[in-house]
Every structure is written in C-alpha cells, then in structure tokens.
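Morning F.,

Quick status update on the modeling queue. The single chain you submitted on Monday has been processed. Sequence for confirmation:
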Amino acid sequence: MPRAAWRGFAGGAWHPAVVRTAYRCRAYPDEAQQQVLARAFGWVRVVWNRTLAERQRRWQQEHRGTTYAGTDAALTVLKKDPELAWLNEVSSVPLQQALRHQHGAFRAFFGKRARYPRFKSRHGRQSAHYTRSAFSMRDGERRLAKAAGPLAFVWSWPGVGTGVLDPTMVIVSREPGGRW
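Structure tokens below.
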C-alpha cells in the first residue's frame, strides 16, 4: 500500500488511516424539493446564526464557553418555541450538523488553525448536510428526509456505480449561480 494511505507512526509501525472519497455530482430537484431544500438551507443558517449570537452573548456577559451539548439542548428549546415551530418542518439532522460544524469551527479557532466563525449570509453558497439517518441511496435513487420523492442527480463518474457506494454523508448545496 502506498505510504500516502498510511498515517501515524507508533511503536515503529505504520497504522492505516481512514481514506475518505468524496464524489460531487449535479442535482436536479423538482419544484417541491427545491422549496424543501431552500427552507432547510434557511433554517440551517438561522440555527447557526442564533447559536453563534448566543455563544457571543454568553462569553461577553458570563465569560463562559458553550459546549456542543449546550448548543444541542438550546436547539431542542428553539424547536419547542411556538414562534419557531417551523424548525420542525425539515429534518433535524442538518440542524444538528450545523451545530457540530460550528463546534468544530470553534475548536479550530482556539487551536489557532482558523479565524473566528462568522455569521452566515443568504447570498453565499447554501448547504445542508445529511448523515446516514436522514437519507437513503438505493438503486441509484437518493431520497432525503422530509423531501418528497427521489432527488434526481447526474452521476458523472464512469467506472464507479452508485449501487456499490455506501456514503456516510450527503451534502446538498446550491451555488449562487443556481446550480445544485
């Protein structure tokens, strides 16, 4: 096995690392799916921004940090708020993934590997991350949680069939130019 596929030197022996492969393909959601995904993108942004604002407020007023468990509990409270009941219209997985990404962004910031996390804007690239519990991929069809019907996409990787893939995450995004 090539050395690039091995990571970590411990006790005189190389240990295998997890090798991840990502495939990017073009999606063609129908009108109903576009509306569901647009709502998911917006609500991911709302959760990110509200959580970031609360983290900043807590640090400025109490000089205390916020854990992932704290943000997850805050998400549960947000979803129970009658004014924010619309958060229940989309899968909770992308919302929780936004919190995980924010937690990782803060770890990278405090580890001096990245800049301070910023608020999300609706004008940039929009995305929602779905883990295995929120999507299925069978017989070349991809279905997302709380979305009607299979999501049409064009597979452009010759030699790699969608039937043999077992993805752990699907990221659906819309670029500013309107491509999915």
